[in-house]
Structures are given as structure tokens and as C-alpha cells.
């Protein structure tokens, strides 16, 4: 067992080529899963006995919400690797994660609001999960703002990496305090999905969508990573070979 | 050349000496312990602050101003204002401490003091903690002492005063520490005010929640110890970790 493959991950040309090679292996399965999941969720699954067809937005909402957290974790882990081992490619991964994560978070908020209108009669409810999700969006925006605000790229990498780690330590604290705040201030008015009785025809498309969104994230990340590496290495000689050759 | 200013320079000399002698940071001629260095840094910041009293007063005036806005915007009825008082007090305190963050590192980054700290061979974490402590003594504590006045003007009874002082005093410790991370990260960014608030406010939400809760309970005359203890837990957690992160952020900013 050698570690060459790991050390080669620190080399931008290698990562650039690897990302290009891997992208279709994630993009096509992602497309398949999402098309199948949407078909299963929007057409095959029976309407919910309480929520009717409105519940179907779940098939976009839940995977988006799931990805919003997972992308943040990926970003923080990549940032920590970059900060500890001074690995430039890891910083590039973290930088590529942020806009994707912010988009998933935004999608989760918008679909949540659209779901809330027919279900709760209001677009916005100060539900702990919605509030935490909104705070997460601000964490992403702060991360991107800090990165954009610092001109020196290495300083931007390291400062935003530290911020991502500080954020990860705080996410559970924020989440639990928001939950605690809500349980004190407001009677639970949120209608939950009927937990035990989610039939297979409803669950299977959801799992497919979760898988599809995860694969989609990897495919997007690899694509963004390539452009990030190109931008960072724009004065390197291997770029010329890639672009002209 | 006498008086506090030269006294400060003299007092800090042990910290700065290794650099002046050109010694390597790895093998400093340590003439002061980390505790001693922190104490001196704390005293320096306090003395400098008392030279510029207007800076001390500004956050307090801002806090009073925010408190004034709410009766004008909502209603002069004390019964309604009393219900809103915890929120008004905590949003005001949060914004005032955010405003005061500008003074935490900026001057020292401009005149090179932070670089001297980083090169002094002393624990930067201890020095940053001392600076943050000074910041809390100069903004958090005065805010805590002023919060009851603002509360009384909103129709809150005198009985709630101890609870409000305790909650703002303990909560503002965490706010100062979170702010030290944000302030250190945004060093060297021009017009960083909006970015600084975007970085620190989401992290400050737990303080806001528990602080407002403790204040609310105190106003209603019910035991407020539980949220106060949670505020204390947040403060202890922040004291343990935030100076490390802030010192790392200062080092990154100085690179």
C-alpha cells in the first residue's frame, strides 16, 4: 500500500485531469437517479392522504436541505485539510463547495416556503429547521464574502478556511439554541409528515433523489474544481499545454 | 516624558525586548511570563482607551439611541414596550458591541503593534485574549451597566435590574470573543463593516436567544438562572476556544 495516489492529489495538473475524467462518472448516474426519482415521486407515488399532491415538493426540498449540510461539512473538512497540510488543492475544493452549498441552501429555503404556503397557510414559519437553514445560508454568504474580500489568494484561502472551521463548531450550537428558543416561544404548529405510514412508493423516489443530488454535487464540485484550478494556476506552464493541446 | 504613556512603553518593554535584540521568536529571551505579558497588554489597552474617551462613549450612545428608536417606531405605551424590552435591549447590545469591534484590532494593526505581539515570542493567544478582555471591560461591561437604564425607560420594574445586568455582562463576554475572531479575520479588508456583521451575527445568535430569554424571565420576576447558566456555558466555551481561533486569524492576516 503506497501513498503515491494521495500525494498526487496535491498536484494541480493531476487533479485537473482526474476531475475531468471522473466528472461523467458522476454526472450521468446523477441525471439517471434524478430523472427516475422525479418520475417516481411526481407520477408513480400516490398522493398523501393529508397533503394531497402538495407533498411532492418534498422530493426536491429534502435532498436540497440534506445537501446544504453535507456540502458545508465537505467544505469545512477540505478547508481543515488545506489549513493543516497547506494543500492548495484542498483550498480549491473548499472554495468550489461554497457557491454549490449556498445554492442548495437557497433551494431548500425556497421549496420549503412554497411547501409551507399550502400546508401551513404561510410562506414563512419561524420553525427551528427553517431558521437554522436561513442561518446556514448566512454562514455560506459570510464565507464567500470573506473569500472575496481578501485580495491575496493564499490569505483568502487560510482566513476563509479558519472561518469554515469556526462555523462547523458553531452549527450544532446554533441549531440547538434555535430549537430551544422555538420550543419556548411557540406551540408546535407545524404539521409533520405522518411518520410511520410512508409507503415504499413514496420512500423509494426520495432515496433515489438523495442519491442523485449527492452525485450531482460531486459532478458540480469536480467541474467547479477544474475552473478553480485553471484560475489559480493561470500562469503555470501546464495550463498552456492543456489549453492549446 | 512622564505620566502613563511612557509608563506603558516601559511596562511593555519586556515583551518587546526580544524583538529589539533581534532574537529569534523560537528562542526568545523571555523576561515575562505569558500571564505577565497578557496583564501588560491589558493595561496598555485600557490606558490607551481612557486617552480617547469619545471612543468609549460612542457605543453607549449608540445603544441609547437604538433604545430610543423603538418607542418612537412602535408606541409610547409602557405596557407594550415592556413586552418588547428583552428584544430591544439585546438587539441594541448586539449592534453596539458589533460597532465597537472596529476599535478592537484596527489601530494596533495600523501601527504595527499586532506584528510586534506576534513576533514577541509570547503566546499570541494570551495577548489576544488580553486585548479581548480589555474590549469587554470597555464595551461589554459598560453596556451591562447601562442596560438597566434602557430597561427602566421601557417600563421594566427595578426588580429586574440584577437579572438584566448579569445577563448582558455574561452574554457580552461571548460577543466580544466571537467578535475577536471576526475582527481578526477581516483585518486589512477595506470597508469591512458589513462583512464583519455578516461573519459575527450568525455566530452570535445563541447569545441573543439565551440572553433575551434570561432578560424576559427577569422582567417577569421568574427565576432566570437556567438561561443565565447557558450564557455562562457559552462564555466558558468561547473563552476556551475563541482566543486560539482569533490568534490563528491574526497570524493569517499578518502573513
Protein topology:
The complex is a heterodimer of chains A (245) and B (255).
Chain A: H1 4-8, H2 12-44, H3 58-85, H4 88-120, H5 128-149, H6 153-185, H7 200-232, H8 237-244
Chain B: H1 4-20, H2 34-51, H3 53-73, H4 78-100, H5 102-110, H6 113-119, H7 124-153, H8 161-185, H9 193-219, H10 225-254
Helix pairs in contact in B: 1-2, 2-7, 3-4, 3-7, 4-7, 4-8, 4-9, 7-8, 7-10, 8-9, 8-10, 9-10
Write a structural description.
The complex is a heterodimer of chains A (245) and B (255). By secondary structure, chain A is mainly α. Chain A contains 8 helices and no strands. Chain A has helices at residues 4-8, 12-44, 58-85, 88-120, 128-149, 153-185, 200-232, 237-244. In chain A, α3 packs antiparallel against α4 (88-120). In chain A, 40% of the residues are buried. Mean pLDDT of chain A is 86; it is low at 186-194. Chain B contains 10 helices and no strands. The radius of gyration of chain B is 20 Å and the shape is elongated. Residues 1-29 of chain B have low confidence and may be disordered. The chains are: A mainly alpha (245), B mainly alpha (255). Chains A and B meet through α5 and α6 of A and α9 and α10 of B.
Give a quick set of tags describing it:
heterodimer, A: 245 residues, mainly alpha, B: 255 residues, 10 helices
Q: What is the straight-line distance between the termini of chain A? A: 34 Å
Number of strands of chain A: 0
> In DSSP terms, counting alpha (H) and pi (I) runs of 4 or more, how many helices of chain A?
8
Distance between the termini of chain B: 35 Å
Largest sheet of chain A: none
Give the overall silhouette of chain B: elongated
User: What are the segments of chain A in which pLDDT stays under 50 over at least 5 consecutive residues?
Assistant: 186-194
Tell me the fraction of residues in β-strands of chain A, as a range: under 5%
What is the N-to-C order of secondary-structure elements of chain B (H for helix, E for strand)? HHHHHHHHHH
Q: Average pLDDT across residues of chain B?
A: 85
Oligomeric state of the chains? Answer: heterodimer
Give me the strand/helix succession of chain A. HHHHHHHH
Rg of chain A, alpha carbons: 20 Å
Which structural category do the helix and sheet elements of chain A fall into? mainly alpha
Number of strands of chain B: 0
